[in-house]
Amino acid sequence: QVQFVESGGGLVQPGGSLRLSCSVSGLRLEFYAVSWFRRAPGKGRDWVSCVSAREDNTRYADSVKGRFTTSKDNEANTVTLQMERLEPGDTADYYCAAEVMGECESAIDEYSYWGQGTQVTVSS
After folding, report:
1. What is the CA radius of gyration of the chain?
2. I need a labelling partner for 103 at 20 to 30 A (CA). Which of 17, 29, 36, 55 fits?
3. 18 pLDDT exceeds 90?
């Protein structure tokens, strides 16, 4: 049984930081590229970042480039998203998603396995 356990969301002030984690069981992440997506209130799900199967390549949406860092530990089967200099526009539910592919893709339809989401609110 495939299970994703996401954690680390919460309320943070603008300019603050949060670290999201996605712990996966039932899959061996060494074969999976893993992306983070987010859905802001009233909007669709947008791609945020991706780390490749072998952990040797990362990609970011322009809106988070330079502020967010994603990493994957294939031995621990976990993925993290370190978020710095958070802005109110980063407020959203954040989801990790995985698919068997070497390199990163940003299209939602490419991913078969999804976490349940964790809420991030950036507000003063």
Report:
1. 13
2. 17
3. yes
- Picking from 76, 71, 74, 86, the residue whose alpha carbon sits closest to that of residue 9 is 86
Q: For the chain, give the number of residues.
A: 124
Angle at 31 between CA 40 and CA 70, to 5 degrees: 40
pLDDT-above-90 percentage for the chain: 94
Cβ contacts of 32 within 8 Å, gap of 6 or more: 53, 98, 99, 100, 101, 113
Contact in structure between 61 and 54 (CB atoms under 8 Å): no
Other beta carbons within 10 angstroms of residue 58's beta carbon come to 15
